[in-house]
Amino acid sequence: MSRINLVTTATATPEQQELLSAIQAKLGMVPNFLKVFANSPSALRAFLGLHSIASEGSLDAQTRERIALTVAQKNSCEYCVSAHTAIGRGTGLDNAEMEANRAGSSKDAKAAVAVKFAQSLVEHQGEVTTAELLEMRAVGYSESDIVEVITHVGMTLLTTILGKASRLEIDFPKVSL
Question: Domain Carboxymuconolactone decarboxylase-like spans what residues (predicted)?
Answer without folding.
Answer: 43-102
